Amino acid sequence: MSFRTVYKNIHAAEDPSWSALGTAGAALNEALAPRGLTRTERFATLFLVGTDLVAWVIATVLVLLLVANDAPEDYHLVTGPLLVTLALYVINGYNRRTDFLSLEYFSEHLVAITISAACAMLVTYVLSTFNLSVKPSRAAIPFQLAVFALISLAARRFLGGRIAAKHASGCLLVLGEGKKAERFCKNCVELVINRNIELISPSSETAQLKSFGTHSARKGRGTVQPDLPDLYQSSGCVAVALACDVSKLHPAILHRLIRLHCSGVRVQTVEAFQEQHWQRVSAYAVGPDWLFDNEFVLSHGSIYSQLKRLGDILFSLCALVLLSPLFLLIACIVRLDSPGPAIFRQERVGRDGRVFSMCKFRTMCENEGDIYTQKTDARITRSGRWLRIFRLDEFPQLWNVLVGDMSLIGPRAEWVKCAEIYEQEIPHYHIRHLVHPGITGWAQVKYRYGENTEDALTKFEYDLYYIRHYSFEMDFRIAIKTIYTIIGGRGR
Q1: Looking at 138, 166, 194, which one is the last position of a domain?
Q2: Total number of domains in the chain
Q3: CA nearest 260: which of 43, 481, 31, 70?
Q4: What is the pTM of this model?
Q5: Between 349 and 246, where is the model more confident?
Q6: How far is Cα 245 from Cα 268, in angstroms, rounded to an integer?
Q7: For residue 314, what are the domain limits?
């Protein structure tokens, strides 16, 4: 029986029964999983793809006109578009949910195009060595990609502005109660969602309303009838997030949720919302059977895992040789700035819970203190503060990568003392030890430096997302964001 058939049968009844709503609840649970794009999202994706195609045509025509006497063969002009399109897809450049107005996306967009341009030029000159009659222009590909970058960024900022304007006066309606719902709403506020957040308790036919955000029109608490379609229209809600067990909802509320869902309003569980919009897996969604989910793709014996290990060895070996003069200079600065060794070693937890000694440039005075490093921590040295900002203190970990203790990309290698605390306070924390820890990772580039157990829980959710989506595409996105973090000096 289809979901819409269940809805029609319930809608035809004057007083929906528990049995019918139980069947509908099961159908709703299945329907709430993210399974494709809405009509608006498909239109946005088509708009971006169409704009990029126009941008490529304009850029290529300008290249042929301005560099006509020295233009490369046609297939050389195709290399750049293919690589850039792939790179933009990986960084979610065609995803409507991406914040195209943010400085972070602007930087990632430019970095992706720059890397693609370098690869395209490398491919072009390698191919030209096998065909001496072809003399590719040095300016053709950079000029083509520069024109495309301007048009593609303008299109995405235009789309981002329209989306922001549409959602500016709307709100996110959260149905739930307790710690799970409260934490979700507070996370929405912390992540600066450009809309009001209204929390409704669904424990009975009357719902308790609580508003979050600084510009909400509904302050404090009050009792309202849970007529969700009416509330949706009156408050301008753009989505409904469910922070509760759908099967235990009151029949009247469940009936109205079904009406909303079938009318085209996006209704999602908070777990699906977090995974789609924030790229993290809710800790509340993780259970003993989580690893056996059909979408779980992690495999230590996969071809990609072996290729990743080979890449770790080659990159770390080359980096250690090429950057050795820089390492020596940093070591001298650290020794002159404060007493103590230049290299700091600490016991960290690696893959499968194995403890290893991790290397870093020392950035703090050697004395006991809080296990967390605060933003204005007095223990941080003068040179250490700058090393942390640009993440230069992490470079000695390339040795750990070379010997196999770590990978270039993966969850943060936690200090043994912290890991023991988190194992007791965060359920299923051991899951993050299924992969090698990394110098950089999804949690490191998406969230601030952790200062307490609550921060550790949030970073654990980002680690779960990385483990669930373990792939080359995921690692490439992290690499792009890491470059943005280093160039922007966003470390700590």
Answers
A1: 166
A2: 3
A3: 31
A4: 0.75
A5: 349
A6: 12
A7: 303-366+375-487
